[in-house]
Amino acid sequence: MSSMASTTIYRSYSEDETKEIGRRLGNTCASGTVISLRGPLGAGKTVIAKGVAEALGITEAIVSPTFTLVQEYEGSMHLHHMDLYRIDGVEEFGGIGGEELLYGEGITLIEWSEKIEPILPAHTVRLSIAIESDGSRTITVTGVEP
Ligand SMILES: Nc1ncnc2c1ncn2[C@@H]1O[C@H](COP(=O)(O)OP(=O)(O)O)[C@@H](O)[C@H]1O
Ligand SMILES: [Mg+2]
């Protein structure tokens, strides 16, 4: 039996605080980790990706993969950064060869992962960002020790 998933809730008042959560994730997660990033447009999902990339020593600029669907970077581990905003669902995801990235090496970050919810691996780390009325972000992380 796997251990119980832990949940940590953060409140972030700035882009850099959110990026720091990404850095922490990048420093904690082992190769093979899939990180699901949920939250509305402009929540900070790509900011989290930038923090993870920093932790992996990636110096290349992280660009939003909204149109390319997936960007690949090389650091201390591979980083695949996906944005499924323009994907309809599991079938289309399979069509672009997405499924193998769920079981590959390195870290795979997936924005708008709810599009492929049924096929997310059981070990997926789930991060959800809510925008509060004061502009701060509530960030809930499940599935990894902080
Ligand atoms: N606390 C915060 N955490 C993250 N981003 C924030 C925060 N406050 C303001 N922002 C701004 O919100 C935007 C988030 O953009 P982005 O990460 O591209 O969103 P998403 O990928 O979720 O659509 C950035 O312009 C960032 O500067
Ligand atoms: Mg984004």
* Percent range for β-strand residues: 25-35%
| Tally of individual helices | 3
State the total count of DSSP E strands: 7
Alpha-beta content class:
alpha/beta
Write the CATH homologous superfamily: P-loop containing nucleotide triphosphate hydrolases
CATH 2nd-level architecture:
3-Layer(aba) Sandwich
The fold-level CATH name is Rossmann fold
The biggest sheet amounts to:
7 strands, mixed
For the CA atoms, what is the radius of gyration? 14 Å
What does this structure look like?
The chain is α/β, with parallel strands linked by helices. The chain has one domain (8-142): P-loop containing nucleotide triphosphate hydrolases (Rossmann fold, 3-Layer(aba) Sandwich). The chain is 21% helix and 28% strand. The chain has a 7-stranded mixed beta sheet, covered by helices on one side. The chain is globular, with a radius of gyration of 14 Å.
Task: Give the SSE layout.
Elements (H helix, E strand, L loop, with lengths): L6 E6 L2 H14 L4 E6 L6 H11 L14 E5 L3 E6 L6 H6 L11 E5 L13 E7 L5 E6 L4
Parallel strand pairs: 2-5, 2-6, 4-5
Antiparallel strand pairs: 1-7, 3-4, 6-7
